[in-house]
């Protein structure tokens, strides 16, 4: 089955700095890679996703890059703000057949210091 | 429009007790999912239902059963709860034409 590894497990930055979280996956058939943000005690919420037919996608301060050859994808947050502090999860769809059958990474706790 | 609604929010069970976690969505989505979240392990898929009348196992189905009661509702049952099932359970749904999963607010289950 699919295996998704996420690094780092914790990340601490100063407000205004950039943050980068990286994930690798094992199933070459995976074709959908979402990123979720989860605040303490809340549900995961999608912040950005990318499909395998593109290499990069941006949404304001957030971007995701995908390297299918190397089987890794990354989340980039620029100009970080304290409200960006949360746990971030990457995911990939196992087998590439269903967008809902996701294998998640272990999560990254991002702390943005004012 | 409430999205995905889960009940109860919290539950404490003794080992061996049974219970059903309820999930309902009002977005007319075909596909529904149950995930569990444990510290340091991300979310793992328990069961899913691609459409009304079908259910399939996910990554960690042992100890659970599901019922897709109708298009709106997808329940998760623990027949004989074990401490290893202490977790936060999330129900999710999605539209077949659009990938994003929409999660409910979760049920925090403790088995003593």
Task: Describe the model.
The complex is a heterodimer of chains A (114) and B (112). Chain A has 114 residues and is mainly β. In chain A, the strands form two sheets. In chain A, strands 2, 4, 5, 9, 10 and 11 form a six-stranded mixed beta sheet that branches. A five-stranded antiparallel beta sheet of chain A has the order 1-3-8-7-6, with no helix packed on it. In chain A, 36% of the residues are buried. Chain B is mostly beta strands. Chain B contains no helices and eleven strands. In chain B, strand 9 and strand 10 form a beta hairpin. The mean pLDDT of chain B is 94.
Question: What's the topology here?
Answer:
The complex is a heterodimer of chains A (114) and B (112).
Chain A: E1 4-7, E2 10-14, E3 19-25, E4 32-38, E5 45-51, E6 56-59, E7 62-67, E8 72-77, E9 86-93, E10 102-104, E11 108-113
Parallel strand pairs in A: 2-11
Antiparallel strand pairs in A: 1-3, 3-8, 4-5, 4-9, 6-7, 7-8, 9-10, 9-11
Chain B: E1 4-7, E2 10-13, E3 19-25, E4 31-37, E5 43-49, E6 56-57, E7 64-68, E8 74-78, E9 87-94, E10 102-103, E11 107-111
Parallel strand pairs in B: 2-11
Antiparallel strand pairs in B: 1-3, 3-8, 4-5, 4-9, 5-6, 7-8, 9-10, 9-11
């Amino acid at each position: 089955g699919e295996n998704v590894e996420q690094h780092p497990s914790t990340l601490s930055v100063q407000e205004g700095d950039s943050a980068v979280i990286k994930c690798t996956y094992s199933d070459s058939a995976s074709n959908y890679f979402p990123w979720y943000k989860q605040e303490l005690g809340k549900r995961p919420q999608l912040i950005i996703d990318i499909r395998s037919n593109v290499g990069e996608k941006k949404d304001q301060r957030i971007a995701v890059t995908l390297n299918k050859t190397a089987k890794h994808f990354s989340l980039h947050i620029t100009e970080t703000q304290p409200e960006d502090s949360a746990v971030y999860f990457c995911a990939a769809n196992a087998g590439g057949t269903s967008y809902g059958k996701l294998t998640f990474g272990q999560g990254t706790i991002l702390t943005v210091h004012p | 429009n409430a999205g995905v609604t889960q009940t109860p929010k919290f539950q404490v069970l003794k080992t061996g007790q049974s219970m059903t976690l309820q999930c309902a969505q009002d977005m007319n989505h075909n596909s529904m999912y149950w995930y569990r979240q444990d510290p340091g392990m991300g979310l793992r898929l328990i069961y899913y239902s691609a459409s009304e009348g079908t259910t399939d196992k996910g990554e960690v189905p042992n100890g659970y059963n599901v019922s897709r009661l109708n298009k709106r509702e997808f329940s998760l049952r623990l027949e004989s709860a074990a401490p290893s099932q202490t977790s936060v359970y999330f129900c999710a749904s999605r539209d077949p034409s659009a990938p994003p999963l929409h999660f409910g607010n979760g049920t925090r289950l403790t088995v003593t």
